[in-house]
Specification:
Elements: E1 7-12, E2 18-23, E3 28-32, E4 49-54, E5 60-65, E6 70-74, E7 91-96, E8 102-107, E9 112-116, E10 133-138, E11 144-149, E12 154-158, E13 175-180, E14 186-191, E15 196-200
Antiparallel strand pairs: 1-2, 2-3, 4-5, 5-6, 7-8, 8-9, 10-11, 11-12, 13-14, 14-15
Length: about 220
């Protein structure tokens, strides 16, 4: 398929039998049992789309722009955004709370923005980072989350546990995203070359780290 813009993220359906891919212009590509509820592909955006998150029942999703603007589709509700407000660094991702009645956004400087029933348990705002934050994942009960930096450094907050990182490991390519295991006792990091780094109870099921890719990886999705 010829894409107008590169892919920037994905989200899985609740039963794991489908997923959505999202492009930088907000174009949505559903596969399996994922349904397309709308997109920003035909809209004029102030900035590029940075990521997406699905609602818990899989009947909707949110897209987030690098400026913190939120675009809800399906049964996703807009609980607020940073559109038009000062943000210290571009937003790089969005994560839903377990009940779908809120979400967190994270900026590349590690600043966390909480909306709806999402609670801010801390952030890296104002602290020195060796590399910018590239994503986040929430714990199963929504009482914590992890931030991940491009060097694989992990920053746990709330009830999120630190199970290891690649912060002190030489990487062939930078980390671009992470996903938590269903019980929240582990997580995977994914690098731009598709290299997978499992920690805690996360299993290593393979990677594209030794495969030549036409384009770099941009993110990953976890299992329900």
């Amino acid at each position: 398929i010829t894409l107008n813009k590169p892919m920037v993220g994905m989200a899985s359906t609740p039963n794991g039998e489908g997923y959505w891919l999202v492009a930088a212009d907000g174009g949505i590509f559903p596969f399996g049992n994922a349904v397309g509820y709308g997109s920003t592909g035909g809209m004029k955006l102030n900035t590029t789309i940075a990521g997406m998150a699905a609602t818990p029942d899989g009947a909707g999703y949110w897209l987030v722009g690098a400026d913190g603007a939120v675009f809800p589709f399906g049964d996703a509700v807009n609980y607020g955004s940073m559109a038009g407000q000062y943000i210290s660094a571009p937003v790089v991702g969005i994560v839903s709370t377990p009940d779908g009645k809120g979400y967190w956004m994270v900026g590349s400087d590690g600043n966390v923005y909480a909306f709806g029933d999402a609670v801010s348990y801390g952030s890296m705002a104002g602290q020195h980072l060796n590399k910018p934050v590239v994503g986040m994942a929430a714990t199963p009960d929504g009482k914590g989350y992890w931030l991940v930096a491009a060097d694989g450094g992990i920053f746990p907050f709330g009830d999120a546990g630190g199970y290891g990182s690649t912060g002190d490991i030489h990487l062939n390519k930078p980390v671009v995203g992470m996903a938590a295991t269903p019980d929240g006792k582990g997580y995977w990091l994914v690098a731009a070359d598709g290299g997978i780094f499992p920690f805690g109870d996360a299993g290593g099921y393979g990677s594209t780290g030794n495969i030549t890719l036409n384009k770099p990886m941009v993110g990953m999705a976890g299992v329900a």
